[in-house]
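Sanity check. The docking grid for guanosine-5'-monophosphate depends on where the pocket ends up, so I'm generating a full predicted complex first rather than guessing from homology. Inputs follow.
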Amino acid sequence: MSCIFCKINNGEVPSEILYRDEDMFIIKDIDPKANKHYLMIPTKHYKLISDMTDEDADAFARSIRKIPTLSKELGLENGYRLIINQGDDAGQTVFHLHVHILAGQPLDFPDLKKQ
Ligand code: 5GP
Ligand code: ZN
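Predicted complex below; grid placement will be based on this.
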C-alpha cells in the first residue's frame, strides 16, 4: 500500500496523531493553508465519497459529529471550515478520503469565478 495516509495510520511514516478513535484520526497538515490546518482521515482507505459503503458513511457521520467536541483541543472555538477535495477540478492530491479542517483566523471565501 503506497498511500501516505495509510502509512501514517500504521506508523510506517511518523506523524503526531492529535486524536484517534475507531473511525478516524486527526493530524496537522504538513503544508498548512491557514493558522490551524488539520486533516481528519478515516482509518479505512477509500478514495472518494462515491466509494463509501453504508458502513463508511455511518463512520464518517460519527467522525464529523466528533469535530465540535474537540473544539477546545484543536482551537476551533471561533469557527472553522471543512473542505473535502474530490477529483481533478478540486485538486485532490492524496487519494484517501480526508476532510480539511481550517481555523485559527477569519477565513475568506474567494469568488473563484473571478480568478
Ligand atoms: P488534497 O489536496 O488531497 O485535498 O489534500 C492533501 C493534503 O495532504 C495536502 O494539504 C497536503 O499538504 C497534505 N499532506 C500530504 N502529505 C502529507 C504528509 O505526509 N503528512 C501530512 N501531515 N500531511 C500531508
Ligand atoms: Zn490510504
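Relevant for the grid: The CA atoms of residues 72 and 78 lie 10 Å apart.
Also worth noting: Residues 4, 15, 27-31, 39, 85, 91-94 surround guanosine-5'-monophosphate (ligand 1) (CB under 6 Å).
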